Amino acid sequence: MPTHDILVLPGDGIGPEVMQAALAVLDAATENSDLELRLSFDLLHGAAWERYGAFCREETVAAALTADAVLAGAVGGPRWDNIRVPGGPEMQDGLMRLRKELRAYAGLRPARAWPGSHSRTPFRPGLAETADILVLREMCGGVMFALPRGQETRATGRYALDTAAYSEGEIRRIAEAGFRLARGRRGRMVSADKANVMESYRLWRAVVGEVAADYPDVRLTHMYADNCAYQMMRRPQDFDVVIGCNLIGDFLSDLAAVVSGSLGLLPSACLRGAPHGGPVPGIYEPVHGSAPDIAGKGIANPIGMILSIAMMLEHSLDAPDIARKIEAAVGQALADGVATPDLDGTASTSDMTAAVIERLGA
Ligand code: NAI
Ligand code: MG
């Protein structure tokens, strides 16, 4: 069994709290397996800024490039959100830099209903109990990265510019990832765009349509993103894989979190390549941010981070059986009513972690 290198970047705010919890689950879940893990730790974003004056150091990029997987807590906070350093958008955000440097373009953001958590969603009975949506977000291009961008003052007042741009190759590779994932699920894919009003989305729609020819077993539907958001809330159980650009995928993945009951439950994977049946390197992080409003209180829900570790075991470490074991333990803890405050309960981060670890053997 080869040793797997994992770079751990706890991050800011609740990042280190949920990371500590999730590593305890990883430790317990792999205890009697033959999986050999070598963990190394580094700082990212705010924590790195305070120590090194950079959001992401070259050393961190180099370590991430050679690791089998990177685990990231969450980054950011009011202390750093308005700092601007020389360079493009990826230099302003440690996680964006890592995604870009690693070409981790395929952002898998699964959101599913969990037993026992339905009562915490706004859905009426019967509408979302079996919902299981995989939002696939393009992570390395689009309006969040494209140039030119900037702010200036003109005679007419202040002016700001962003650019929405995608190349055919960028669209093709994310579309292929989407079709492969849909093929392994329920065989349906919705592509969300704004092809009615924007050129980059016209190309998006055309290229996704072309790639579809190679996947006749997947049913593709194009939707305008605004209607897609509406339909996802109206009939969440009808959705399987939903692909979108960096911006639309960001919005739709937080929206999909509603079917789970809390943003704190959502994991994510940013893969450095399309899934192909074997291990793919990737960055694993919860969908949520650093939650400064609850940081340091010991009440953050660790499940998004715990399930991100399950995704790492599945996609980068070739250990889907251990991933399933962790997911089952999470499902059992939620079904038994263990709930942190975001799920209207009183369990602390460590109570929830202990509850998951207790159920690993079940
Ligand atoms: P957020 O996701 O941090 O928080 C939104 C709301 O959800 C807050 O009320 C928070 O308390 C709650 N929440 C989030 N995660 C939770 C958890 N695990 N358990 C319980 N409650 C949870 O988003 P917000 O407030 O917009 O951003 C805060 C900071 O995080 C900003 O600096 C932002 O830039 C950064 N951010 C970082 C991300 C990342 O690292 N991938 C993603 C999104 C935001
Ligand atoms: Mg988001």
From TrEMBL:
Record domain Isopropylmalate dehydrogenase-like: where: 5-356
GO terms assigned for molecular function: 3-isopropylmalate dehydrogenase activity; metal ion binding
| Keyword Metal-binding applies | yes
List the cofactors. Answer: Mn(2+); Mg(2+)
- What SMART domains has UniProt attached to this entry? Iso_dh
Cellular component per GO, a single term: cytosol
GO terms (BP aspect): L-leucine biosynthetic process
Q: What class of enzyme is it?
A: oxidoreductase
EC number(s) for this protein?
1.1.1.85
InterPro entries documented for this protein:
IsoPropMal-DH-like_dom, Isopropylmalate_DH
| Keyword annotations | Amino-acid biosynthesis, Branched-chain amino acid biosynthesis, Leucine biosynthesis, Magnesium, Manganese, Metal-binding, NAD, Oxidoreductase
The protein's superkingdom reads Bacteria
Q: How does it assemble?
A: Homodimer.
Q: Which family does it belong to?
A: Belongs to the isocitrate and isopropylmalate dehydrogenases family. LeuB type 1 subfamily.
Enumerate the PANTHER family for this protein: 3-ISOPROPYLMALATE DEHYDROGENASE
Protein name (Swiss-Prot/TrEMBL) = 3-isopropylmalate dehydrogenase
